[in-house]
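Our consortium's second objective concerns turning raw sequence data into structural hypotheses that experimental partners can test. To show how far this objective has progressed, the report includes one record in full. It was chosen at random from the queue rather than selected for favorable results. The single chain below, 107 residues long, was entered without modification.
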Amino acid sequence: MQKQTIYNRIIEARKDAGQDTSQTSIARDLGIFQSAVGKWKRGHGAKHTHMLWLAKTTGVCVEWLYTGRGQKHPANPDVLALIDALDDLSETDRAAVLRFARAYAPD
């Protein structure tokens, strides 16, 4: 069985959403260099803003995209609205919101 990496989950999510899965297409859609996508394939992490955008445009949960854990798809549309709102925050504000959410999330 193939190891589930961030890159593999990105490919799976894009395939499920009917999107092109080539590195060139992913890079073009994100406005980044193809070499950055190639780094993901080799196991390097992706920027948070890129992961949020990929989750939003493919309809998957960002936690699943990062880790492979949790639900693949949001339980309700409000989750995608929250992703949109997080994407508009500064890095400092986003970190504060995520700390708050983690502190009050059910175990």
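The partners drew two points from this record. Helices lie at 6-16, 23-30, 34-41, 48-58, 62-67, 77-87, 91-104. The radius of gyration is 14 Å. Both points have been shared with the crystallography group to help prioritize constructs.
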